[in-house]
Amino acid sequence: MKTFKILPLALIGAMALAGCEEKNEEYFLKNIDAATEKLEQCTQDFKKAFMAKDENAAEKVSNNPECLAAESAIKKDKQLKDEQEKQRKEAEQKQAIDSAMADIQKQVNGLAWTDVIDEYLKIDECKKALFSSTSGNPKCVAWETIFKEKVDEGKKELKQLSFDQLKTKMTSLCKLDKRTISNCSIAQEALQEKATEELANDDLQTIKAKEPIYCADDLKLLAVCRVAWNNAWQNQHNKLVKFYTQNNTEFVTTYNACIDRLEQAKAENSDFLKGIQLEETIRQTYPCRQVKDAYIERGIGYAPFNDGKLEQ
Fold first, then answer.
1. Most buried pick, 11, 50, 77, 273, via CB within 10 A?
2. What angle in degrees, to the nearest 10, is found between the helix axes of 183-199 and 230-246?
3. What is the distance between the alpha carbons of residues 234 and 196, in angstroms, rounded to a whole number?
């Protein structure tokens, strides 16, 4: 006859509690299968309550701590797995790019920067990748990095030349290739940057005097003129307009001096057409153009120089 040991009541209670212990998010994170099973059960219970139009039962399911914990655990588990997958792909991509980079470095080792650019232009699959935000092709990512390095190297080398020398070099390169990312375009960018640097500390009159250099007939359509020279002129023009707008004495003195010049031009030219042309030149050149714009900026009117001199 078997004998059964009588377990203490305290131990029986502890075992019962362990079996009925509420499962939280931490538990479900460690037991995703259980979380999935629990969430399916909760979903079924909610559907059952909804079909029965039992609001109390539906609310009870919606607020059930285990249902909420299971749902939260599943979401966090997905986020964790997504992040792990992302890191895995990034590591894989980096390894592929590093390998491609090593191969390309061997290929271009010892070549001048201009020759490296030419090599890059031969790779049709990568030319579009340069202008896209992302490229899934490790070879193209590696080539893009090298291309940008060589662009910087080329512009730095070119800007060591004088402006005229750089212009001559650009002209030579552009006879061979004028594509957007060719050596020609790099030389054009270098010429623009050099002009910007050379004009940076010049006043308006000096910038205007240099217009024939930076906006010569063969440069008028290029960024060296359209961007570098025009921006330099516009910046200094804006500074003078602001100065005349904020300083009454200088504004009135210069404005009245411009009227004197206009009246003198009208008096000294019997040829009506030439007189009109001279007056327009005065209106559109320093300092009358700037004081004219300041007149408008001050809100005095829109027809400067037409109503006589100003009084301070």
1. 77
2. 30
3. 13
DSSP state of 225: I
Q: CA-to-CA distance for 85 and 92, rounded, in angstroms?
A: 10
- What totals of helices (H) and strands (E) does the chain contain, helices first? 17, 0
State the first-to-last Cα distance of the chain, in angstroms, to the nearest integer: 126
Residue in the block written with tokens 């990095």: 145
Asked whether 25 and 69 are in contact (CB, 8 A), the reply is yes
The 3-state DSSP composition of the chain as helix, strand, coil percent (nearest 5) reads 75, 0, 25
Tell me which residue of 70, 59, 60, 67 sits closest to 29, measured CA to CA.
Answer: 70
Token pair in block for residue 148: 């940008």
Structural tokens at position 215:
């906006």
Pick from 202, 259, 264: nearest CA to 233: 202
pTM of the full structure: 0.75
Among 162, 161, 129, which Cα is nearest to 148's? 129
Element (H, E) at 215: none
Percent of the chain at pLDDT > 90 equals 81
Place of tokens 């025009």: 230
Between CA 99 and CA 108 the distance in angstroms is 15
The letter for the amino acid at 244 is Y
- The values of phi and psi at residue 300, to 5°, are -70, -35
pLDDT digit string, tens, across residues 169-221 = 999 999 999 999 999 999 999 999 999 999 999 999 999 999 999 999 999 99
User: Could you give the angle at the alpha carbon of 207 between the alpha carbons of 219 and 284, nearest 5°?
Assistant: 95
70 token code pair: 């299971």
